[in-house]
Structures are given as structure tokens and as C-alpha cells.
Amino acid sequence: MDAAQDEKRLAVIDLGSNSFRLVVFTYVRDAWWKRTDEIFESVRIGEGLEATGDLQPAPMQRALETLELYAHFCRAMGIDDIRPVATSAIREAHNRESFLAAARERAGLEVHVLSREEEARYGYLAAVNSTTLRDGVSLDLGGGSMQLVRVSDRRARHMQSWALGAVRMTERFLPDGKAKPKRLKNLRAHVREELGSAPWLSEGGPDRRLVGLGGTVRNLAAAAMLAEGLPSGGVQGHPISETALDELVERLASMPAAERGRVPGIKPVRGDLILAGAVVIQGVLECGGFDALEATEAGLREGVFFERLLAGTEPPLLDEVRRSAVTNLASQYRIDFPHARHVARLTLEMWDELAAGGLHEGARAEREMLWAAAMLHDVGTAVDYDDHHKHSRYLILNARLFGFTPREIALIGQIARYHRKGTPSLGEFAVLARPGDEELLSRCSAVLRLAEQLERSRDQSVKRARMDVVDGGVDLRLEADEDVKVARWATERQRDLFQRAFGRELTVV
Questions:
Q1: Strand 8-15 relative to strand 82-86: parallel, antiparallel, unpaired?
Q2: Among 1.10.260.40, 1.10.3210.10, 1.20.1250.20, 1.10.287.3510, what is the CATH number of 322-508?
Q3: Using one digit for the tens of pLDDT, what is the confidence trace for 250-259?
Q4: pTM surpassing 0.70?
Q5: Matching fold, domains 3-114 and 322-508
């Protein structure tokens, strides 16, 4: 059966307190998934709720018009599997039943109002399935509420929700947008008092982390990256340091509310809300003793989708986030898996033996990046064979590889880019690099290019490649059941690259 016939689509509609978002996920179970459409509207249904307890007429009208649009879109696209979910503003409104009835009548949508526990759970699923978080806390800050989940060994141990959303805190403490010192002091005191009910916030070992999701987090991460002069290709995995967040808050507080949406990285529709949201996050870092907040581009929508994708598993968690992200991207573009897996195996065999011979440290993180680049080195052939190494880099950089940081994604892309030819260089990604990354790229590119040349005939004829570090040089011994003249010829052409990377002469024996 053609894989396309097994494709399914799920439309998740997130009725948030600040914005409504329709996201379409296309997937083939046990194969791949991706977002294939998205519509965003800044509805602000929670506007005025803090003062009255009711959804106000104008926000309700905007919300219903948006839902009618979303329903029409799904009908036009032939999407029958629709999951509309509402969060804190609708959940807490005294007149929510009136709104839900109007949504049924006007849009034909049966909206499921998430409980506090359900909302926290979906945020947790999004965080743990899009990052390598094992020990720490996931934070989901919306317009009306904030959910924190204590995570231990990837499992949720404590879940709690507070009415600390960006819209609610703005209306309560910064109603006219003016960030007077006393107002900010009162907001900070309120956040500390509320978080006092979660003593588990500071629990955990030395490797615990704080992972954040939601529009406020994404905007703050984008602003922090741009302030540091980093490429703005996406915020997935970017850690916002406590210092960077403090500087952003100080900068935002010093300017009129109308100008906050002009700060690079901050969307205009969030400009009036971003300061209050940032102060709430400051409070979480302070009370939890965290020194950074790691951003993820996943959100509640992904949490709902993962529950569907991983149905039958409880909790619905991906086994290995990084490996899943790589194989998911490779599957989307239908790469030649026998070739890619063989190249990856040869690559890691040589890499491990070079480490055993003392030519590099054998760092686990470097090995993971090298494996990812080996699996994805040919993904660019989906665009065209010519320059496919460059196309591979483009797809890797723009695919939201969950579990990796922007630096790691850049390195994976560069390693794949140099798997055919050229002198490895960090180029425009040097600003993301750590000391030693130029050498890391050189090593990984050299080993991957050797493996690619050994598999040049794409027949897996080279069964194994052994690296023996001897007498100041390196002997590459090929194990094969047949003649491997093509592999030997192709490999010998890479001797100069290998010598530049490892300082040793390579001999194919």
C-alpha cells in the first residue's frame, strides 16, 4: 500500500486566553509526522475577564468569528478529525456555557474545556517530547494562567496551575502599560507569594533544567538571541540565561508600552503583554533556583497531538527525542535508509576507534551530532541531486529538530554540508560556536566523508572500516566480501582532509 494512503490529519484548535491557533498535523503512525498548516489569530478572549469574571461581548464576538473561520478552513481542506480545546479564560468565565453553546451553533465545533490538570499535562507532554528534559520543571505560560510540572526521569511528579498569565497580570498590575517601579515590585511579590504553594519547585539534582513553552517564552527567546547577535533561525533549545532575561526586563520596563512590540524578536501583538509575562518567568527562575530557561517551539497543540500519535502508550512519550527527530525528518523525505544507516554505522565505527586511539576525546554529544549528520547527509536529494549537500544543510537548519540546541543544529547542518566536498568551516554559524567547534566540525566532516566514500557504490559492500592508530599515522582497513576498488579509490582522495582534521597521515591498507 502506498504510504500516502496511510496519511492521517488532525486539526488541533487551541483556544487560548490571548490567542487562538489552528494547527494541522499530518502523520503516518510509526513512520513520520509534521505540521502542515497553521492559522494564528490574536483574539484576546480573556480581555476584561480579570475585572468582571465574564467573557466580554467584543472578545466573544472576535472568538466566534475566528472559530467560524477555522471550521470553514477544516471543511474546505477535508479535515474531519478536529480537536478544539479551551484553556483558562474560557474555563474560568462565569458565562462559559453561553460561549460554548454559541461555538456549537455558529461553528459546529464541540469545544473541550481543559481542566487545570489536563492543560498542565499537555504542556508537559509537549516539553518532554521536544527536549531532552529528564529532571527539572516544564513551564507553560499563557494569557490567563501558568502551569508548572515537576519532572523526574521524564515522568510528571507534580502538576500545578496558577492564574499568572500574561494578559491577567498585565490587566491587574500594568493596566495602562506604565512599568512604574512600585507596580513591578507588587507584581514580583505577588508571583513569589503564589509560587510559595509549590515547595517542589526547587527539588531535583544538579542537572535539573527549566523548559518553557508558550508565545511569551518564544518571543523572549527570539529577543534574547537577537540581542546577543545570534542567527534567528528558530528558538528551539535556546537557553535564556537569567542575566539575559534580567536585561530584557530592564529594557522593556524602560520604554513606553507602545514601543515594546518593536523590540527585535517581540511580535507587535504581544508588545503590551510581554513585560508582565517576563516578570512572571523571572519569579519562577528565582523561586526555583534556575539560572536559565530553555525554550521549545512546541506548545499545547503538540501535547494534544502527541497523545494521538502515541496512543496506547502511557504516558505518551517518545523513547528518544533526538533519535526520533532525526528519523522523523529522514522519513518525511524518504531517504535511502539502507544507505544512510550503513554510512552512519561506518562513521561511528571509525569515530569510536579514533577515540580509542587517542585522536579525540570521544565526547557523547559530538557522537550524537555526527550520527544525526550521517543519517541526514542525503536528505537534500529531495530537492535535487546537484548541490544536495547544501540542500541537506538547509532542510536540517529549518526542520525544528527537537532535542537539539541551535548550536547543535548548526553543527549538524554544517557536517552534512561538507560530506561531499569543500573545506569545512563554521561560516556564518561561528557566532553560535564554543571554543573547539571548528576542530569538532573538521573531525566530524572528515570521518563522515570517508564513510560516504566507502559507501559510494551504495551496495553496502564494505562491511566494516577499522581505524588503527600506528607509528604516527592511521591505517584504514576495509573488510568486504567482494572487490572494493571504487571504495578504496574514493577514500584515498580524502587523505588531505583527514590529515588536516587529525594531524595524521591516512593509509588505506
A1: parallel
A2: 1.10.3210.10
A3: 999 999 999 9
A4: yes
A5: no
